[in-house]
Write the structure tokens for this entry.
Amino acid sequence: MEMYINYWLHIRQTDFVRGYFAFCVPATTITLSIWIALRLTSRSRLTDRLLYSMAGPLIVIAMPTYWHYMAMKTNLWGWYGSQSWRYGASPFEAILVLAVIFVYLYGKWPLPWWTLLPLLAMHFFFWAMPIHEIALVGSPIVAPLVGFCASSVWIFYIEKFRAYTYHNVAELA
């Protein structure tokens, strides 16, 4: 795919195929397809429920899942545990942050919503640390920054959704 796109764009082909287009084109296509589907169904109750209950946990677990996949593929992490204690703490951090997200999602979070932002920043910083360098192909700041921004937008969405729902229930009473 990379060679064909380079040929169409008149980019000189070298022996080293980087795969930038091979990743960017399908990722952009999938992203646009999901965005269009969400925009077309934006007024439906199903879309609201999916964004409310699934978007946040998926954002938070995306980097750890990718890292564990790459670690298993490169034998940094085996079925029986880690080859290094640094890698062994990684699944527990992901489970802990996912638990915090579910506590927040189901309304049991005792602190204000903005207290989640530093926790999410620490989560994505943790996955950007050098011990996780295997997961960060390209710029090591892009994936954590995008993840943090997406999870922040999700928190704002949840707060707006809750305020709207609370306001409508208060009007009916």
